[in-house]
Automatic annotation (TrEMBL):
One of its GO terms (molecular function) is histone binding. One of its GO terms (cellular component) is condensin complex. Residues 163-184 are annotated as: Disordered. InterPro entries: CND1/NCAPD3. This is Condensin subunit 1. GO terms for biological process: meiotic chromosome condensation; mitotic chromosome condensation. Transmembrane segments: none annotated.
Amino acid sequence: MTDVLEFFVPSHARDLEDLEKTGPTQYHVSEPCEFDVHPRQQVDDLARLFDCLHREKSPTSLFSKPELFTALFSYIKAIESPETNQPVTKQARHKICHEVSERLKKLLQISLAYFRKKANGGVNEALLVCLRSTVKMYVFILCNILLSSAPILEDDENLSYSSQRSARKRKRAKNEQDTGIGEDCSGVDQDGRELALTALIDVCSPDLLTMWGIHMEENMLNLMLRMVLHMITQKANVQNDAQPVSGALAVLLLRVSGHIVAQGSVAPCDFIVPLIELALKTESAAQFLTRFVSEAESGDISNDSTNNIVIALIEGMAVAALHDVSGDAGAAKTWHCFSARLQNVV
């Protein structure tokens, strides 16, 4: 336990297999395995994997048992790599999201109880690395699932994977936002997305500062931010029927942005640039940002960092109205959407 190699969130899944990128002092996948689970066998395969995790007594078994993480990692690697022989099905993504979210929530509860017990000191450093690494593994898995695009024609055995990809591209080019009822592009249902987001919100809780030390890991925060930006461009995550998901996204963005700006590496005026760009491109993102401002104004999560971000966002949208909206009918429409909704918030 004294020579535990900590897991750090990679920029790309395959980086975990490259010792030159992880370095010898960080966790890496020493025995890479290629994903070759037939679509019809994936849910059963995952059920066996999560049963193994359940039978383990330790809450950090995903980290302490490399064979368990490697098996789950192969799904994430397959999702990231379009050239894989077998696509990861919508049902498999759904299964992973629900199972991992539940386990992450339980792990955070256990961690919080331990930290409260050790409030006066005496936290075991090796155990801390195990807890922190397992949490980051779960975050890595959840974010990659919610960042993914599930195959559409996966049930048609007469179509090759390449033709499925071509059909998927054509269908999404025609109407990128249309998915099944309650689903976004990831294929995970609304309950699953809400469960995952609330678990990620808990990861950023100020009650868990003992786990992170001075600052939360930058790569993990950036991954969560990328996931949020991806999700808010989809109507299924911000429309009226998805209020729980939209609200959870707003709270998560507030917490993630607060941590990022508090570290001092990014100024609020720079942080909000991609938010404004998205708001001018899609009405769903503009609609979401008013929810974001509303959550910030509620005061429950408000602090100096989040307040500065909201001020920078509103000022940035005002500047965009003067310079970026003129001559762009689409941007003008989304800006007016944001402005009209904002009047009902502030």
